[in-house]
Amino acid sequence: MSSERLVVSEMFYSLQGEGPTVGRPAVFLRLAACNLECSGFSYRAPETGEHLGCDTKLVWKKGKPYTFEQMIHEWQTQGWLNTFIHGAHLIITGGEPLLQQEKVAGFLSYLVPHLPPHPRSLSPVGRGMTSFPLPLSPQEKEMTTFSPPLSPQEREMATFSSPFSPKGRRAGDEGADTPPHDAKTNALPYIEIETNGTILPNEFLSHRVNQFNVSPKLSSSLEPREKAYRPEVLQHFVNLPQAIFKFVIQNEKDVKEVIEQYQKKFNIDNQRIWLMPEGGSLKDMQKKLALLAELCKQYQFNFSPRLHIHIWDEATGV
Questions:
Q1: How is 126-171 classified by DSSP, letter by letter?
Q2: Pairing with 176, which of 71, 77, 186, 312 sits 20 to 30 Å away (CA)?
Q3: Alpha-carbon distances of 190 from 41, 123, 130, 186, rounded to whole Å
Q4: Distance, CA of 209 to chain centre
Q5: Longest dimension (CA), the chain
């Protein structure tokens, strides 16, 4: 029995609403608390009209401690563990989930023996992607010091399956390895972590998470630059081939900031960058859709919808 706890705001089963895996069924684990406020965003509480900025603040400001055992029991009761057999992702979001990253790593280790056996590796095989092991590069090892180091068993478990190669190509291109299809395993599902790019992930998560969705906050968020812009952390994510970058856009000025302060400064390939419209409600977001589509075409970035808002508007837990 594990007494370790995560402070959780909500857990639910839905569809990924943003980024390169939009539309993928997923179990969402939303953790409480954030180190940013994003008061420059437009969202207002639907019942009171209070300006909140961040469209999930009403949820992540509240949290309840759950033991790992309680979380697994809830997921078993809801039938969510079985969804991983058929390719559902596990999306860990917030707030800022890396505020609890040591406990997140512990939960992922605890989760493994509770997963139903799977007839093949839980990598993106069968989804147009294949997987390959990728350790930290020498440059990353020099740049980042982790303590304590991973044990051999943890390091073996932490090898991830990434949808991106070191050059930003989709895995599945020439040279990518395909895992066997007949191996039965209790391997972890495909894991995504949503982060604002201000906290350095530990070595376990850097190895084991399949996809980091890094969403740095631009000047229009009204976050102080010293809080929102952490070059050493951003460089770490740039060096991780499984990291993509998505930005909340209000106008063309935001796009130019993406180009000058992120794309050019960190040499991020366009295909790793997604732009999505600002707005916590369907009404607010729709005002920006056509403009953002044109900006993505003009500057050749990926366009990301916000599927959950398109479908459910301001509802949470869906």
A1: TTT---------HHHHHH---SSPPPHHHHHHT----SB-TTSPBT
A2: 186
A3: 31, 6, 12, 12
A4: 9
A5: 55
**What's the pLDDT score for residue 285?**
72
Query: Which residues does residue 213 pair with via DSSP β-bridges, in sequence order?
Result: 194, 244
Identify which of 243, 290, 245 has the alpha carbon closest to the alpha carbon of residue 270. 245
Q: Which domains, from first to last, does the chain contain?
A: 5-312 (3.20.20.70)
Nearest in space to 168 (alpha carbons), one of 267, 97, 235, 28: 267
Q: What is the mean pLDDT of residues 33-44?
A: 75
Residue-wise pLDDT tens digits, 252-305: 999 999 999 999 999 999 999 999 998 766 777 788 889 999 999 999 999 998
Cis omega (within 30 of 0) for bond into 95: yes
Amino acid at 274: W
Distance CA 138, CA 72 (A): 37
Task: State the amino acid at position 46 in one-letter form.
Answer: P
Length of the chain: 318
- In angstroms, what CA-CA distances link 301 with 25, 165, 215, 220, 260? 25, 19, 15, 19, 14
d(CA 310, CA 316): 13
Q: Give the span between the Cα atoms of 210 and 203, in whole angstroms.
A: 13
**C-alpha span between 302 and 212 (Å, rounded):** 16
CB-neighbour burial class of residue 128 (10 A; exposed 0-12, middle 13-18, buried 19+): exposed
Q: Are 96 and 138 in contact (CB under 8 A)?
A: no
The β-bridge partners of 274 are: 246, 302
